[in-house]
Design goal:
Layout: H1 2-58, H2 63-75, H3 79-101, E1 111-114, H4 120-132, E2 135-140, H5 143-151, E3 158-161, H6 167-181, E4 188-191, H7 207-235, E5 238-242, H8 255-274, E6 280-286, H9 296-308, H10 312-318, H11 320-337, H12 343-354, E7 361-364, H13 366-376, H14 380-388, H15 395-399
Parallel strand pairs: 1-2, 1-4, 2-3, 4-5, 5-6, 6-7
Helix pairs in contact: 4-12, 6-7, 7-8, 9-11
Length: 408
């Protein structure tokens, strides 16, 4: 009896299975399409629900709704589109790197004139280019600097004495370059010569202190460039002007920041004017490096001279403690923050001369790339607050808390 009941149940189950198979076989296509349509509808409903929630959460109206719709469109970008965008960005980066690595051919024997070759960047660059086969004309301020450079370079390197504050000295150097190039034109001009001191609070300065720096870093640079432009245009050459991160973010008082801002502006104008004649102009923006310009001894000597010539009123407003702390801050900056590897700068100079497509600006040094230059793009309120932390506070300021004005 039990066996009959089990057999009967088994037959009923098989019949149901066969019936189900028959139904599924006849309606598979329609069911699949319905399911797909249902899935699309659900996705659309889900997106619309999310958009409504965003509108409700932000309570947006008018123009804000347009911005929200744009955001929604971006939020709905498919994974395939995101991968495509990333691939495009990566492709552009690779193309830029390849383009940046291309060099000018047949550079051997080209003439390059470099100022400020007694020491530092100019001295090292002259040696680098001499080894590359350039005909280097190195301008030095002193006879000693000239002799030392000639002693460690090839016979093709020539030196000339140049004082950028003296027009007659500039004329003599220009005439020397004309004779050396012998009608070929000048392929490269590197305006490297400059000075940084005195650097101190603005009301410590006299007008002569500004002239001391501006006459070399800016006016001298402009004069030598103007007088060599005919030779540069003839050779469709390069101009490389050494500015500074202080030309993007004024920090210390005195003529240094002013001069470097001027170099930036002059270089931009020169680049736009000379592009019609095939002359390329690049700007080097070094951070803090250990050179003769950043010598602690020279900086402290100038600070002491300026402090001693202050009136009693100005000196009292700052206080003796301020002077001691200012000296200490300068020593810390020069010893701890300044990079001793000046080749980071000269490699940028060299690239600006030999690259087929030189860059407009070169930030040199980790501090320049990751602190000074990014800070120059920050809001004034933020940059002022950061820079105030690097120097001491005058005695008069401690008595009454000063407020930082907001940019409007």
């Amino acid at each position: 009896m039990k066996e009959r009941i089990q057999k009967h149940e088994t037959n009923k189950t098989q019949a149901k299975v066969q019936t189900a198979r028959h139904v599924l076989g006849s309606h598979t296509s329609a069911t699949f399409i319905d399911r797909e349509r249902g899935g699309v509808r659900k996705k659309q409903q889900k997106r619309e629900t999310m958009r409504k929630r965003r509108r409700k959460a932000l309570a947006v109206t008018g123009k804000d709704t347009v911005l929200l719709e744009s955001y929604n469109e971006l939020a709905d970008v498919s994974p395939e589109s995101q991968i495509g965008i990333l691939a495009s960005v990566l492709f552009l980066i690779i193309c830029w790197l390849i383009r940046d690595s291309l060099n000018v051919k047949d550079l051997n024997g080209k003439h390059v004139f470099i100022t400020g070759c007694d020491s530092g960047f100019g001295n090292l660059l002259a040696k680098q280019l001499d080894r590359r086969g350039f005909h280097v004309i190195a301008a030095c301020l002193t006879e000693k600097g000239s002799r030392e450079l000639l002693a460690c370079t090839s016979l093709s390197l020539k030196t000339v004495i140049l004082n950028l504050t003296d027009s007659s000295s500039i004329d003599n150097a220009v005439e020397f370059v004309k004779q050396e190039t012998d009608g070929e034109g000048l392929f490269g001009l590197v305006n490297n010569a400059g000075r940084a001191t005195p650097m101190a609070p603005t009301d410590w300065m006299q007008i002569d202190d500004f002239h001391t720096i501006l006459d070399v870093n800016l006016m001298g640079l402009i004069e030598i460039t103007l007088k060599l432009l005919p030779l540069l245009k003839k050779a469709k050459g390069r101009v490389v002007n050494v500015a500074s991160v202080m030309g993007r973010l004024a920090f210390l008082g005195g003529g240094y920041c002013l001069s470097k801002w001027g170099v930036e502006a002059f270089s931009d104008i020169l680049r736009r004017d000379m592009q019609h004649f095939g002359v390329k102009v690049s700007i080097i923006e070094p951070g803090c490096f250990k050179t003769g310009v950043t010598s602690s001894e020279v900086i402290e000597r100038d600070l002491l001279r300026l402090w001693n010539q202050l009136t009693a009123e100005v000196r009292e407003s700052y206080g003796d403690k301020y002077f001691v702390e200012y000296i200490r801050a300068q020593r810390f900056s020069m010893k701890r923050l300044c990079d001793s590897d000046i080749s980071k700068v000269t490699k940028c100079m060299e690239h600006a001369l030999i690259a087929k497509y030189p860059r407009t600006r070169y930030g040199s040094g980790w501090d320049a790339k990751f602190f000074w230059l990014p800070l120059s793009y920050a809001p004034t309120l933020l940059s002022d607050m950061m820079l105030r932390m690097l120097l001491p506070t005058p005695a008069a300021s401690r008595k009454s808390v000063s407020r930082v004005p907001l940019d409007v």
